[in-house]
Amino acid sequence: MAIKNLLALVVLLNVLGVSVAQKGLDLNYYKHRCPDVEAIVLRVTVQYVSRQPSLAAALLRLHFHDCFVRGCDGSVLLRSRDNDAEINALPSLSLRGFEVVDAAKSAVEKKCPGVVSCADILALVARDAVSVINGPSWPVPLGRRDGRISRRSEVNLPSPFAGIAALKQGFFAKGLNTTDLVVLSGGHTIGISNCGLINKRIYNFTGKGDFDPSMNPSYVRKLKKRCKPNDFKTPVEMDPGSVKKFNSHYFDNVAQKKGLFTSDSTLLDDPETKSYIDRQVATAGSSFPKDFSDSMVKLGFVQILTGEKGEIRKRCAFVKPKTKETLTFL
Ligand code: HEM
Ligand SMILES: *[C@@H]1O[C@H](CO)[C@@H](O)[C@H](O)[C@H]1NC(C)=O
Ligand SMILES: *[C@@H]1O[C@H](CO)[C@@H](O)[C@H](O)[C@H]1NC(C)=O
Q: Does 25 share its domain with 135?
């Protein structure tokens, strides 16, 4: 096609409101329909996260959970009357930060009602939250639509008890590769977990009162001070000493056998992930911010709904009520 024709087509598509986008999303998706969306979301996110920096970790994790289950379609935000939505699944119970997404959505709705999806708002909030704590920032192509389905039974997130093979497979299934796995695991540079998830690992790994031999004994001693044998509740820092700082200490920890979960430690069991870790340790994490940004952009494309699929919710916790038209259609 001649350049002139191609240009004409691009202009025509833009006039029709169809975005010319890569893989279905577009950095300028809301340029005409809601030009201030990014500024509004940033303002709300800064408000919350600057007051409560631990929300940055919560919001990053929320976006990850959204994308891994049914794709980045806001399904993690949905509530169900029967407690059978994603939010009711075991790994979701410790999710936090929903109030930030809701506040951002309300603020956006005031300015441009019915235009911006909850999935897009969550992707922006996660990006902005990390940047508030001086972590890396990344572009967020937009145009995701919200799903109408959220099922507790579909939550098959990677387990903290998983070994490298299962983790790689879980990421491959989402179009993410081994590099993405080790890079995004670096998200554990911020945030908290709890004693319940490591109890067995430090007290009774094989049922003989032992600890996981892949752990550094001095780290185990430290964790035992924090977590008593039947404590399933006390918060534990993912990256001791710098839970609110987005840095590359996570890789130093893992290299020193101080990964909190099996899923962290096991990154030493694969030549590719291990060499990435060694490289970050040797260079004080020189490429980590850029790598993290690239993998976050990739994560944001997982199984997205675009075009006529899905909907734009009014409130992120509830699907839109069915109209008469869709009711008769069903
Ligand atoms: C590789 C597989 C992964 C596994 C097995 C895993 C597992 C976990 C677990 C078990 C927790 C603690 C939850 C709790 O205490 O109830 C956690 C927390 C967290 N995860 Fe992951 N995760 C993985 C990947 C990721 C990715 C890709 C990101 C984001 C890029 C991420 C970001 C976080 C953050 C920020 C927290 C702390 C949340 C908070 O402070 O509220 N994780 N993860
Ligand atoms: C993973 O994908 C990225 C691009 O998305 C690529 O640059 C990288 O080399 C890939 N890594 C592996 C191990 O295939
Ligand atoms: C350790 O695990 C074994 C086997 O699961 C169990 O019988 C034993 O009671 C556990 N010990 C403690 C102290 O929890």
A: yes
The answer to whether residue 330 sits within a structural domain is no
User: Is 299 domain-assigned?
Assistant: no
Q: Rounded distance, CA 59 to CA 96, Å?
A: 7
Boundary residue ending a domain (123, 157, 191): 157
Instruction: Tell me how far apart the alpha carbons of residues 283 and 27 are, in angstroms, rounded to a whole number.
Output: 32
Q: Is 94 assigned to a binding site? A: no
pLDDT in tens, 172-223: 999 999 999 999 999 999 999 999 999 999 999 999 999 999 999 999 999 9
191 lines ligand 1 (CB under 6 A): yes
Say how far apart CA 64 and CA 68 lie, in whole Å: 6
At 7, the pLDDT band (50, 70, 90 cuts) reads very low
Given a contact cutoff of 8 angstroms between Cβ atoms, the answer to whether 63 and 123 are in contact is yes
Residue 102 alpha carbon to ligand 3 centre in Å: 43
Residues 228, 126 share a domain? no
* CA distance linking residue 21 with residue 27, whole number of Å: 8
- 303 occurs within a structural domain: no
Ligand that lies nearest to the alpha carbon of residue 191, given by its number in the listed order: 1
pLDDT tens figures, 212-248:
999 999 999 999 999 999 999 999 999 998 999 999 9
8-state DSSP, 305: -
Alpha carbon distance 46, 104 (integer Å): 11
